[in-house]
Amino acid sequence: MRNSMTMLLVFAVLALANALFAAPRQKSALPRANGSVKWELKYTENFDGKDLQPRLWNRIAGTADSGPDWQRNISPRTDLSEVRNGELILKGVRNDDPSSDPRRVLAGGVMTRGLFCMKYGKIEIRAKLKGQKGAWPAIWMMPQYPVGSWPACGEIDILERLNFDGFIYQTVHSEWTKGHPGDPPNMGKGTAKPDSWNVYSIEWTPDLLVWRINGKATHSYRRIGDSHERWPWDTPFYLIIDMQLGGRWVGPVDESTLPTEMRIDWVKFYTLIIDGKRVSEFTKPGRGSSKPPKGGR
After folding, report:
1. Is residue 167 helix, strand or coil?
2. Pick from 92, 26, 41: which is nearest to 62 by CA?
3. Cα–Cα distance between 240 and 250 in angstroms, integer?
4. Do 252 and 81 contact (CB within 8 A), yes or no?
């Protein structure tokens, strides 16, 4: 009898262990914003004109000898950021006219600085990012009215691709992340086929940032505390889209394989509605600028 009871107990333990190990693991869900969240489309930029809309976009004039790496080769030349067939095309090229610009390579970039900015909401961008050694295409956001220098002022990177990577980086920068990049993790990697068309998005609420690729959540960053050091994203930000070339992070450019490009099909801006109340702020500062922001790597 004792042996029978012992055997039954052993079988019961083995059955329980088998069920536990055989059960599929549940993926941990990304955190959700506080309250009932809805998104309402406010504006779509389809790039259906002959050039950039001057009320929304500026071409970026980079600086060759100072500032962060990303802007060293950015040029406001119109052929490097052109609107054609309903797309914004940002190019990276070898510079064939060193007499007017001594930089060996040049790239195009645009931004809404001084023209349009938003506080909370959602941005979606349908983009295609061509792989290239030394290419660093990026879509990101900086504060219109920065408090402190970078990174204390805050930065939101919707996407960055390096070289031929089969994924994109999704990152935030602040004074806190500078010293505590893993508390919580400020950088994620979203799997994609960047050379094909994808929809990249950022959802920005007062307590949460969520990144998505083709509607699938791939990274998030939740608010912890009320200090500006830990959460500088309670102020209007503007949008930057640029075809960056070269730098310490991405590495040297293979000039022999240029030109390269990134294509933008459309950009959509959404209003954030929490518990039936519109929370987003969309503003027009009223004064455009081609000067690059003092931020980024």
Report:
1. strand
2. 92
3. 18
4. no
- List domains and CATH numbers for the chain: 38-283 (2.60.120.200)
Token readout for 17 is: 């262990």
Task: Please answer whether residues 108 and 80 qualify as being in contact, where contact means their C-beta atoms are separated by less than 8 angstroms.
Answer: yes
Spatial contact of 42 and 270, defined as CB atoms under 8 Å apart = yes
Q: How many residues does the chain have?
A: 297
Conformational region of residue 115, where left means phi above 0, alpha means psi within -120 to 50, and beta covers everything else: alpha
Averaged pLDDT for residues 159-183? 97
| Pairwise CA distance, residues 297 & 134, whole Å | 15
Per-residue pLDDT of 251-279, as tens digits, reads: 999 999 999 999 999 999 999 999 999 99
Secondary structure class of 110 (helix, strand, coil): strand
pLDDT > 70? residue 21: no
**Can you give the pTM of this predicted structure?**
0.87
- C-alpha 83/C-alpha 51 separation (Å) is 5
Residue 279 neighbours by CB distance under 10 Å: 17
Can you tell me the distance from the alpha carbon of 156 to that of 149, in angstroms, rounded to the nearest whole number? 15
Residue 71 · residue 63 · CB < 8 Å: yes
Eight-class DSSP state of 182: B
